[in-house]
């Protein structure tokens, strides 16, 4: 692989931009196609299908044979609120393979002792997410019950197309949340993407059980979206 090709692939990885490494099996030449690049013909269609499925493959297109190796950003979870649920959810999410970080400006909650080994940011979400924005490969879970902390990251998750958006709270709390977000200009179909109350309805009561319900719903959203995307439904 040429140095320029490797540098572009690494740049895509660092920017969390999906890319396909296209290698001509006849001549050995390799090139990087980033998501959003224009590529026409049968090879372009094959690359688009690879982005949707996420799977490597060998394709015959435009008179040649090509190996398509897909590089998609690792899935991540951003948890707003250093609460009891977060302590369990962060550990379980790491075991499943998610890159996890917790954001909470309340220093009494966001302590290293309570979240050892977890990427913990004791700052306002608006500042943290400005430095490291959300994206389509990230799930956002808001758990503080405080609109001053939760509302901005929820709105940002909707704007950025996070594959999962969930928020803790009763149905009454969620209805109030929707009214605030609607006042910001979000249409009903976009607001319908918010999972509130958060988590699968398994009758969870304890913080650990609620964490299980949330993680299960995130995995469901991730896997079902992958299946839908493989069929051409990119949301």
UniProtKB/TrEMBL annotation:
Domain annotation XdhC Rossmann: ranges: 77-218
InterPro entries in UniProt: MoCofactor_Util/Proc, XdhC_Rossmann_dom
UniProt cross-references to Pfam families, sorted A to Z: XdhC_C (PF13478)
PANTHER family: ALDEHYDE OXIDOREDUCTASE MOLYBDENUM COFACTOR ASSEMBLY PROTEIN, MOLYBDENUM COFACTOR INSERTION CHAPERONE PAOD
Protein name: Xanthine dehydrogenase accessory factor
Provenance organism: Rhizobium giardinii
């Amino acid at each position: 692989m040429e140095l320029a090709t490797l540098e572009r692939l690494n740049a895509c990885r660092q920017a969390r931009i999906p890319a396909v490494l296209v290698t001509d099996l006849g001549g050995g030449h390799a090139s990087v196609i980033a998501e959003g690049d224009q590529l026409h013909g049968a090879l372009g269609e094959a690359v688009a299908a690879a982005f949707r499925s996420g799977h490597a493959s060998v394709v015959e297109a435009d008179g040649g044979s090509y190996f398509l190796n897909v590089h998609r950003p690792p899935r991540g979870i951003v948890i707003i609120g250093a609460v009891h649920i977060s302590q369990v959810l962060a550990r379980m999410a790491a075991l499943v393979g998610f890159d996890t970080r917790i954001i909470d400006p309340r220093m009494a909650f966001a302590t290293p002792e309570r979240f050892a080994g977890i990427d913990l940011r004791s700052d306002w979400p608006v500042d943290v997410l400005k430095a490291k924005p959300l994206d389509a490969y990230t799930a956002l879970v808001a758990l503080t019950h405080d609109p001053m902390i939760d509302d901005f990251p929820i709105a940002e998750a909707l704007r950025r197309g996070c594959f999962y958006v969930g928020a803790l709270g009763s149905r009454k709390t969620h209805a109030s949340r929707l009214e605030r977000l609607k006042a910001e200009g979000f249409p009903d179909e976009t607001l319908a993407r918010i999972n509130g109350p958060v988590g699968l309805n398994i009758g969870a009561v304890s913080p650990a059980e609620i964490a299980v319900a949330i993680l299960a719903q995130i995995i469901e959203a991730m896997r079902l979206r992958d299946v839908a995307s493989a069929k051409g439904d990119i949301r």
